[in-house]
Specification:
single chain, mainly alpha, 1 helix
């Protein structure tokens, strides 16, 4: 009886460790994905800001240069 309990405890510990490793792996992948989305958003916003700035300069130039 004690042997069975020990085996169950050992198996439970192994499963817990496997679950923690999988949770860590999935959390890491989730964070990397979120970072990728955030980086793309930052780059897109920067490009849009640059485009708006260029449009303003172009409009100013066109006003003075005809």
């Amino acid at each position: 009886m004690d042997v069975n309990k020990e085996m169950i405890l050992i198996m439970n510990k192994q499963l817990t460790q496997q679950n923690l490793r999988e949770l860590t792996r999935l959390t890491f992948l989730n964070l990397m994905s979120a970072n990728g989305v955030m980086a793309k958003t930052i780059i897109r916003n920067y490009k849009q800001k640059q485009q708006r700035k260029n449009n303003v300069y172009r409009q100013i130039r066109d006003c003075f240069m005809g």
